[in-house]
Queue: 3 jobs
Job 1
Amino acid sequence: MAFIWLSIAFPVASGLYLLVRREYAHRKRLLCTAGISFLAAACLAALALWRGAGCGCRLLRLTETLTLELHIDGMGALFAGMATVVFLCAGFFSFAYMGHEEHEKRYYGFYLIVLGVLYALCFAGNLITFYLFFELLTLSSVPLVLHNQKHESVMAGLKYLFYSLCGAYMVLFGLYVVSRYSETLRFSEGGVLSADAAAHTGLLLFAAFLMILGFGVKAGMFPMHAWLPAAHPVAPAPASAVLSAVIVKAGVLGLLRVVYYIFGPAFLRGSWVQRVWLALSLLTVFMGSVLAYREDGLKKRLAYSTVSQVSYCLFGLAVMNAEGLTGSLLQILSHGFVKAALFLCAGAVIIQTGKTRVSQLRGIGKEMPVMMWCFTVASMGLIGLPPTGGFMSKWYLAMGGLTCADTLFALLGPAVLLVSALLTAGYLLAPAVAGFFPGADYEHKGIKKREPPALMNVPILILTALSVLLGIWPDVITNGMAEWIKGLVTF
């Protein structure tokens, strides 16, 4: 039990310490403190997952029926493990990147607080606990968006806050309704609706739809996606990496908890809520890919790509069968590693060359070959090409779509996924090809190697390698998930 508490409290306390402490006389001391905090937080999380699996504890009793509870299950462990890897890699990448930014101590302070809140979100044992930390995640991550305090950053941060709060109010309304017609708010396979809920199906379906929209805001689902391409490009590159790879997945986790653990798939399967959700997720997949294809800004292109790729996860959840859910969870892992690697690659390019647009990347593979090879392999993962984890996730998603009970979406789903994959190849492989093969008229003389330092390259290499390993040995994950996925979808 103690490790569950410590895995949350330690990074939050470390972050608060950095925020209130006076400035360090030497930058090395700040980096040493931050680095030790990152490693200690990761170790405590690993111990919590190892020793606390299946365990839980009560944090606080609010009323006779409302309590704040923590509990570690397979779903929370999967998200927490991915978050730990991405935060560690992006955190150590920050040591090289943030030397070019101001307010570095403040950045690491909020970075650690966000990590602690994320662990609390992953380990939430009931809906009220999840909602509390979901709100805290928004509030603690806003400073990462407006870090440089420029007008564009402040406006993007406010946009992120406004959209997130609107989504949270939708979720809050649904929470009120669910608490009235449920036996408990504790996450349970198959849902928690009470026997008299059948008499209020219309109201409960409306509440479920609002909660799907509300959590969909954080996941960047249309029509509440506009905050994402505004916030990601203005944040520091390592912050963009965790925003895109991890924080948007808080919305996916919220949807997963609400659909499979609160309402139950049996209640929503075949309803208008499922059909509208499927339509919105596919529309977002296609729209995000088209917008990314048309965008020339490197980080903004990756942000639009996140809009599309995260909705792959939502589509897998919405089909409500074993293949779709398996594909969604694999996509969460694969996209987390790949998108973090791509944003870190973008940060390395910006720091080493000052280039911020895709059209400026011609010949960049001659200057930064290792980084550009990682960019290419990570792009293959986002497209869904073997041997990356993206291929396996999209394979399961396509199979889940084909076996969808709704004939229209059984045909439309795989078709949209295929078109999106082709668009993804266009907007990611084109700069990779131009980077390595700039053409006969490119001036090759006087090219200087601008490979980033090891603190940048090593995290990118680790994330890229993980995306490939996930594609080579997906059974390590799928076999472990098979039993509880079957338990979730059979209700």
Job 2
Amino acid sequence: MAEEARATLQDLKQAQDEVALWDDRWANDTSGNPDKHFSKRQAARRRVRALSAQLKAQGALPMTDHERLCAALDALHPKARSGEVVEHDGQRYRRRFFPEEKSRSGKTVTEWGRTWDAI
């Protein structure tokens, strides 16, 4: 866990290279198995998402205006439920969850993403 205590841009680059490696292995596979390397690809992508979020929180990567807005709304309304409407600086926003990652079959969501949409 010590390595995740403080993420670096080098960690992110290595994770992105790992995603590229597993994507290439999957694309060049001739075994006929569409699920080959699925878990490795999924884990590598999950690591890139986690490192990117951590680097943005540390300030090492720039955040978009929407990401800053979502972070501010998350801080103000940490327990907001899906579809909940809140007002911030005279604008109304609705909390929305979306599938970030699905199981191998595609039927079960294994990781949810969240955002705020202006209404």
Job 3
Amino acid sequence: MLPCLESLLPGGLALLEEWVGRNSFTAHAAGVNALGAATAEAFAPLGFSCEFVPSENPQYGSHLYLRRGARGRPPVVLVTHLDTVFPPEEEKANDFRWRPEPAEGRIYGPGTVDNKGGTLVLWLVLRALAELAPEVLEAHDWLIAANASEEALSADFARRTAERCEPAAGGVPRASAVLVFEGGVLSGREFTVVTGRKGTADDRVLAAGRAAHAGSRHADGRNAIVALSEAVLRLARLTDEAREVTVNVGAIRGGTVVNRVPHEAWCDLEMRAFDDRVFEETRAAIRSLAGPSAAVPGAELVVVPTGLTPAWSGDGGTARLLDLFRDVAADQCASVVSERRGGLSDANYLAHLGPTLDGLGPSGGQAHCSERSADGSKIQEYVEVASFVPKAALVLEMLRRWETTPASDPGEPSVSR
């Protein structure tokens, strides 16, 4: 297996260089679409047909779906994304481009680890399966789902992906497995995979007061900034590290000029939690702020929900899928550590389809960073070249052990050991 993957790696790195050379900032739709076309071309020799699905937001590019295999069964869904967070102007200003550093074992560049490098691990796995175990490639229905706007957390990708999964009993879309190729840490022979992610609730809190002249009629005013400030302190106290819940007020605005009592102010916040009960309790506490201000009589607070991302608990089939991954690693004299992350990925939206593992992409660092300084205090996003083959080897062997017919229980993956 390893010699096969190692022989494929130089060609894979040539693909990665091409992909990294294409700016695919989320709002650069033409660049995202060009990368999607190049990605589809790379998988075409493996028999994958391609489908481009426009994003609901016309500012974004098209989602890419690649499909092969027998229909009529829940597919193995392999998830990556096309977009990055770097506008073309930022890449140019910071000279942020494909830059191999062989002495460091790294390649720097936009998307090298997030998430064009993840797409390369996926490509290596399927290319090696075609050579080493073509019967496995033929046995499954494969669905590669490449999000055009993952960095913007657009929810339409999840709906489009679910529409392409075969319905199980009751008409509910199902996947045999959902494997997400976001970056994951490799330290020596210890692999880290992601088995849960926090959900988020976004809200705007608005304070409505009463304007007045700050000098001659100050007492007539109802200061919206003061009302909002008291609410912000109450929001901050909802953070509880012991319960793994955080509330972050990330933006605040209010008032106009200093000789006027401000009549309005607002803040934007996000709450994150793993546990569904904690999540809902904290949402209720945020909503309870609505009504008369406790700090400024006569001022009112309004809470407006602005976004919601489900938590991925990692229960059920994910735990058993992790057991299989650990068995594979042990056979290769390696170990697997699972972690739950506070950050979001497509797994938050897709884990309901079937057993899910995340963090199957390469190891690297500084994702979302384009700056570079001579003293080394700032370094750009990079991928560790030596992580590609070991990561691909584990995923490949896990898929070789996957039974061709999933278990009837949606929470129970079917595997052969």
